[in-house]
Amino acid sequence: MPFQDLPARLAEVQARINLARERGGHGQTVTIVAVTKTYGSDAPVAAWDAGIRDVGENRVQEALTKMMEVSVPIRWHLIGHLQRNKVKQLDGLHLIHSMDSPRLADALDVHGRDRARPMDALLQVNVSGEGSKGGYEPSDVAAEARRLHGMEGVRVRGVMTMAPFDADEMMLRRVFGGARRTAEALRDAGHDALVLSMGMSGDYEIAVEEGATLVRLGTVLFGARSA
Ligand SMILES: *Cc1c(COP(=O)(O)O)cnc(C)c1O
Questions:
Q1: Which domain holds residue 94?
Q2: What residue ranges line ligand 1, CB within 6 angstroms?
């Protein structure tokens, strides 16, 4: 059976999340987004069978393929960089975590108005300032939040961030705490921005302590990726 360890791995992760929630004291609900990139379509199905309802992919084509092959009603999340010319293909998605520029926000807005139903998205913020990471600078978020508030085609539901790969605990808290504060800036501008997508296999406990509501977990659930 593929991913036969998944139920036990999931139980352990959920126990760790509950403890981290209590330590953090933010009182949030935490939802696991199972990241199935590079695995086959049996991964989202195994996740569903284990009780997971949210699945994330980082590439549009791979997401669309799995969405076609999988029949259970998963909520699909796009967590990787999105090119503007692919926005129209994303109607089946539940949430786009990677709105990382004003130009992409504009494209989402146009498409949301065209289809007469707004696109739900998270503002990706680059808190660490790493050059290799996309996203808004935290200092740009307040002005962009005011601009986005006028848009009918996109609904900003919160913030997504990634910590540097080798970050120590202090850096992780700085990044995740910074993301939490940018979500506050969105709410100050009138957005219903309650989602904080942060934390991966290596750092999700600290992310939950810092208020994460969505954790994006791949290897800790499915084992090492070969690709
Ligand atoms: C791959 C990926 C994850 C999951 O990574 P793991 O370390 O396997 O948990 C989370 N978020 C993004 C944006 C990713 O690309």
A1: 6-222
A2: 35, 37, 58, 79-80, 162, 200-202, 216-220
- Measured in residues, the chain has a length of 227
Question: Phi and psi for 46 in degrees, rounded to 5?
Answer: -60, -40
Please tell me the distance between residue 106's alpha carbon and the centre of ligand 1 in angstroms. Answer: 26
| Residue 216: φ, ψ to 5° | -105, 105
How far is Cα 150 from Cα 153, in angstroms, rounded to an integer?
9
Q: Longest C-alpha distance within the chain, in Å?
A: 51
Tokens standing for 75? 């909520």
The answer to whether 6 and 214 have CB atoms below 8 angstroms apart is no
Q: Which atom of ligand 1 is nearest to the CA of 219?
A: 8
Q: Is the pTM above the cut of 0.85?
A: yes
Q: Residue 92 belongs to a domain with what CATH number?
A: 3.20.20.10
- Residue-wise pLDDT for 105-151, tens only, equals 999 999 999 999 999 999 999 999 888 888 999 999 999 999 999 89
Is 13 among the domain residues? yes
